[in-house]
Amino acid sequence: MRPLVAVGAAFLFVLSGVVAPVTAAPAATPVSSEVTPGATPMPDGTVAAPASPALQQSSPIGNCAVQPPGNHTDPAEDVLGWSEGYWYNESVAVDDSDGLNETELDALVSRTQARVEAIRCLEFETDVGVEIRTRAEFRNASVFGNVTENLRQFENVTYEALMLVGADEDAVEVQRENLGAGVGGYYEPTTDNLVVVSDDPDAVQFSEPVLAHELVHALQDQQFDLTRFNATTIDGANAENGLIEGDASYVESIYRQACGGVWSGTCRTEESEGPSGGDLANLPLYLLSYQPYSDGPAFVAHLQQTTGNWSAVDRAYERVPDTSQEVLYPERYPDERTANLTAPNESTDAWERIDIAGRSDYGVAGEPALFTMFAAPTFQSQGEAPFIGRGEFFEGGAGSLDPYDYSAPPSAGWNGDRLTPYRNADNETGYVWQIAWESPSEAEEFASDYGDLLRYYDAEAVDGLADTYELDGRFEDAYSVQLDGSVVRIVHAPTVDQLRQLDPDAAPEGDSDVTAADEQDPIPGFDAAAATAALVGVALIAARRRSSDR
Length: 550
Known about the structure:
Residues 27-75, 502-523 are annotated as: Disordered. InterPro entries: Hvo_1808-like. This is PGF-CTERM protein. With 550 residues, this protein is α+β, with helices and mostly antiparallel strands. 35% of the residues lie in helices and 13% in strands. The protein contains 15 helices and 13 strands. The chain has helices spanning 9-13, 102-120, 135-140, 149-161, 171-179, 208-224, 234-259, 283-307, 311-316, 324-328, 367-380, 390-393, 440-456, 496-502, 528-548, and strands at residues 41-43, 82-83, 86-87, 129-134, 183-188, 193-198, 351-353, 414-424, 429-437, 460-461, 468-471, 477-484, 487-493. A hairpin with a 4-residue loop joins strand 5 and strand 6 (193-198). The chain is elongated, with a radius of gyration of 24 Å.
């Protein structure tokens, strides 16, 4: 039977933050749909566990943990490193040849809790219960809530703007497909239970480091209240998840290393096979959702290693990263600030903003999202149009805390953005997207790169109008690109005339200059074969870590 794999709470709302707070390990791809608060699905059998990260950890046990007595006698009171009858270095009698029964599962959970306490230097306030549900029961549990039409339309506009989901696609459904059909379980903050979904409830199987990841989410919820994290933008969710998922993934990495060292022979580490790139409905969208899992562990490690203990990580829950940039560049935390962009409504009465109850009417994409927008052609074209080459993406490999680099020239220098979706009476959609840069030269460089991206998708310049394009196909309609100092303003509508309905300054008369075509030097060594290998590598590395996340 395949082992249980986790998919983290945050992983479900990592994209636009439209999912309620949940906690789990990474799996297929986040779903930008409503989820019951506290529900964090963990995909079962859809990903492989991560390779042992490159950690410089002399001992997995913190100085906070109590030294167990030689005979493992239970302490007179609950102490750090002991849980429900088990010390962190105590053996557990488990025969999992035919799966774990309820007694064996409870014992493994208790010892794993003790080990998580000893590593993370935080104590579980209450024990985490384990509930077994059949797959039919899970399907009837309505973990995913209903998505309103306004929210679905908002999502569609957002991901079409990022050129990750086409005009004829449903962004919510694509994300659900990426998530995968096989859910192995999730942590429910509302009940303090880890729910295991199994086709055979009498023979449950999963990996102990994955269990540790999920238990970290339970610990986070008890100590820091995960339900209060409710970012509603891509960038905000990636920032929150960088801390939440980074914490759980970093602890899991230490745990996994200990299973190959001081705890060798005592860990249950069976892993499942991961998906290939072809198993995903949308690989670029998957890569965007994976960013907190790639950069988050290194961010948390930076905080932990700066102080030599976990105090800085604990304090980070009171000063959560404001932007995914602070996770991408840990040295900028906690002082990074982005431009204060406003979004005045200059549209005619023919257009209205898409209103989502309880959240703002604009989104913030963030630097990793812009990076993914330019990386997508590399994977879609087998390397024929590499705006971002393999060498710019693969950072440390499967053995690294931070395997991918979500920073490259087309997106570096980002200083904030605001994407405002609109619709008209015919239910046609458009948007106004302001993107701030750290300098006018970086804004000009982005505008030029964006023009190249439009041309890659076969956009044609409109005669007599400056930096205005029309495009057929997946990302059809009209585009206007304007440069104002260090801010680039992109307007998108079904027709050129409608561009001006959204923004009276859009599609001005004149010649294109800021988006004029540049001679693009080929990126050395990134041919079709390399791109294919890169795609497979992305799927495998991401799958490995995801299987152990939440």
